[in-house]
Amino acid sequence: MNMQTIAQMSCNPAMGGVAKGQIVREIDALGGYSGIVTDRTMIQFRMLNRSKGPAMWSPRAQSDRMLFAAEWRRMLENTPHLDFWQEMVTGLWIEHDQLKGVETSLGLKIPGKTVVLTNGTFLNGTIHVGLKQFGGGRMGERAATGLTAQLEGLGFASGRMKTGTPPRVDGRSLHFDRMEEQPGDLDVEGFSYLEKAKLQRQRPCHIAYTNPGVHEILAGAFDQSPMFTGRIQAQGPRYCPSIEDKIDRFADRDRHQLFVEPEGWDTVEYYINGFSTSLPESVQFEALRQVPGFEDVRFFRPGYAIEYDYFPPTQLRYTLETKLVEGLYFAGQINGTTGYEEAGSQGLMAGINAHLKAANATPFVLGRNEAYIGVLIDDLIHKGTEEPYRMFTSRAEFRLLLRQDNADLRLTPKAHALGLASDARMERAERKAQATAAISSYMETHSAAPEAINPMLEAQGTSPVRQKTRLNLLLARPQLHMPDLAEALPELAQMLAEHSPEAAQQAEIGIKYAGYLEKEQEQVEKMQRLERVPIPKGFNYLELTSLSSESREKLSALQPENIGQASRISGVSPSDVSVLMVYLGR
User: Fold this and answer.
1) Considering all CA atoms of the chain, what is the largest pairwise distance in Å, rounded to the nearest integer?
2) Residue 489 is part of which domain span?
3) Which of 231, 315, 467, 511, by CA, is between 20 and 30 Å from 543?
4) pLDDT tens digits for 425-458?
């Protein structure tokens, strides 16, 4: 509706995080721009969860909010065959039950074989600040109207969700010496596999804490909170609650963490992550001034909550095409998700499949064993969501296979086959795979003598060896890493110097976690066997009285295509799956 807000970061100025960083890497491997734009515009980079195993490592970057939007706009305008039109879409153009395109507020009809709706928080959006409320899709921007009523008229079920945002403050009024500094990583890896991030300097974030005095002020104003007075009926995000929700739900906690995040290189504006609120602006101001470091804080704007329409994603196919209207796709917060990364991945998948549909080509679907994006979509269409859905590593049962470091090896060949990944990108991924295999082979076929390796082993606090020992067996020890062995063994160091650090990391993870990776692969094969048992289209589950009533209801509504999909529907038990298997002769 406003081309000046393309790629505006509505919430915090950051990309990535736990599981979200994996999604950005997957978008990049599939040819999306998110990783490249983030690398070019970030002001700080951190790899989260380094103290845990590689399945948990998650890249995160603070972005310069204005540069981020400007770089996105530049890249989009330089994308061939991409056109722009600024206006509100008020409805779908449908004739004789066939989707023909969209209609706009000026009465224009824009034709299209397929349409993707990515409405964010704008559908009938309502903004709340204390007991004040007004229409809007984002502070300072109007809501989008018309589409919800038409979609409901077409038979779609809809609901309301709520999200919020914290106040933005003037960094010149903060006392950073009273907070904990949170610097970025010295080794900046970045997100994109195509470009190396060129971050020469970084801006620090800071950590502050609330206290009982802050909580007392906030709790004293609950009678002015739209959450507690009933003005907001919609469900908010469980894993990113407002500050008033935190002090209500966790009354035993005497403090909560706040992340003080800069909005860019050349601005004094700061985002107070963890202080999302819809309380009156005067209460926000009084409470925040009780936080150490915020005694003299000045606001740029208060926090607020926003309610908006969404459409339960169980009404979608794997391609994100709606079941009710052929050629219509939903992506992002319209499906009940939260977060830039979740939205971006859905937009990419919906866009790919909208194109393939228009070209009469085979749909593109990612399985739970292939990508976090596959987990996200599978969860949405089979389990639905009644609160804003956020991705976590715990949602992926094959998370050791779906690491952030191997997204290129998993997905670049698929992107190349679609025409989204260039030959150069494909060659880069192939070189990495070949180098990883070469290093792994070397480690399996070469050994270290006791006299060469024992001094290093003892220095690292692990047992010395009594005879020649293969390098892969040494590397499997938790105390040892590839650089440790390379430092003690010049021949290994020389061999590693011929390959990229990324390939060495891949080889090390493969060796250290070989047993676990093998078990996960066995689980994948079991799941795929269930996926290969098809369920006839239009199958009448109501006739199977051996199924639980909840299972009959859910299966009838969602109509899974195979036993694997059926087994992942919330409310379908293992015994229900067994009944289906028996009935289908398996």
Assistant:
1) 83
2) 422-518
3) 315
4) 999 999 999 999 999 999 999 999 999 999 999 9
